[in-house]
Amino acid sequence: MRKTVILITGVNGEIGHGLVRSLHKEGVTNLIGVDLNMPDEYVQERTQDCLVGNILDKNLLERINAQYEIEAIYHMAALLSTRAEFSPVIAHEVNVDGTLNLLDLAMEQAQSRGKPVKFFFPSSIAVYGLPSLSEKSEAGAIHEDDYRYPQTMYGCNKLYCESLGDYYGYYYKRLSATDSKGLVDFRAIRFPGIISAQTLPAGGTSDYAPEMIHAAAKGEHYDCFVREDATIPFMTMTDAILAIELLMAAPQNTLTQTVYNIKAFNPSAGEFFTKLKEYFPEADVKFVINDNRQSIIDSWPADVNDDQARQDWGWSAIHDLDKAFSDYLIPEIRSRYEHS
Ligand code: SER
User: Fold this and answer.
1) What are residue 122's phi and psi, to 5 degrees?
2) What DSSP state is assigned to residue 288?
3) Residue 124 Cα to ligand 1 middle (Å)
4) How far is the CA of 121 from the centre of ligand 1 (A)?
């Protein structure tokens, strides 16, 4: 008998950590992780098994397929937007071919189980591309179907993988005699920038907000690479994980879309710094603009409309900007650096 498990790729990454932490707290004991590097002890202690390897390695995926019965996949492994601009072809391989491999694994598992495999895919505000700053400010809170003209390799990859998810969910091999509709139960969220008190992101373009606050907590200087008026939506890791869990728990027949926007708060970099100074008056931040990274942020929306997520699966963020600092970031970051 194969063991029934929940598979998390990119388990050692930021959201991977957050998911393991939360699912483990809720009593989930059958987590299997995959990551390029051996996950840290925190993750190892809270998972049944951690496999070190590349999601492009078909042998690794075949081994997983043979060894486990998978009920759900949280496919978090990806190269983020800044890193992807330095290695676009590698980013495409990891972000697109890697996702295709995981969708295929989900389909094989669902066919052999004879029941659907749930598949969570973290998409991003990077799928949007606003042509100019004036259009960005006029556009306001944009809907899921607006401005899907990504300007980054990462954004292109995420947008295409959303379509791949729809294909596996609804149209897979429609010319064959077997009906595979619904076997891969694909669900995706377009995340804003995420700020975690426990971990720092690597290679993203929204990294300036988390980097600013972690630097302040450590008493270090920080050069913020975007202008003070740069604005995109953000949320806490707590809310990002809550959203994943709410969407994954929603009955399939209540979902009217496969891909949802969500939002919590959207301060400019300058407003974020002002809030930070309430807690760390000595915070030493200089705005040293990197024009190229700035242009990526300028192409992302300042705000998104998340009405459908609210309506379909009861989405509502716990933390606005004030609560993000007072109830989550400041207490957890302070205790983190005091103890390290
Ligand atoms: N946070 C991601 C990045 O900056 C966007 O989804 O790449």
Assistant:
1) -85, 105
2) -
3) 7
4) 14
pLDDT at 33: 98
What is residue 1's predicted lDDT score, i.e. its pLDDT? Answer: 77
CATH number of 78-338: 3.40.50.720
Report the residue among 82, 124, 153 best suited for mutation to probe ligand 1: largest number of ligand atoms under 8 A from its CB: 124
Structure-token match 């709410």, residue found? 246
- What are the CB-based long-range contacts (under 8 Å, 24+) for 255-259? 255/187, 255/312, 255/313, 256/308, 256/312, 257/144, 257/308, 257/312, 258/162, 258/165, 258/166, 258/169, 258/186, 258/187, 258/188, 259/123, 259/144, 259/162, 259/165, 259/188, 259/189, 259/190
Question: Is residue 236 in contact with ligand 1, taking CB distance under 6 Å?
Answer: no
Average pLDDT over residues 62-91: 97
Cite the active site residues.
Answer: 154
pLDDT tens column, 111-166: 999 999 999 999 999 999 999 999 999 999 999 999 999 999 999 999 999 999 99
User: What are the residues facing 194 on neighbouring strands?
Assistant: 235
Residue spans per domain, the chain: 78-338
Does the Cβ of 95 fall within 6 Å of ligand 1?
no
**Residue closest by Cα to atom 2 of ligand 1:** 204
Contacts of 24 (CB under 8 A, 6+ apart): 31, 46
pLDDT tens sequence across 223-278 = 999 999 999 999 999 999 999 999 999 999 999 999 999 999 999 999 999 999 99
Rounded percentage of the chain residues whose pLDDT exceeds 70: 99
Is 103 in a helix, a strand, or coil?
A: helix
* DSSP secondary structure, 11-73, as one string: TTSHHHHHHHHHHHHTT---EEEEESSPPPHHHHHTSSEEEES-TT-HHHHHHHHHHEEEEEE
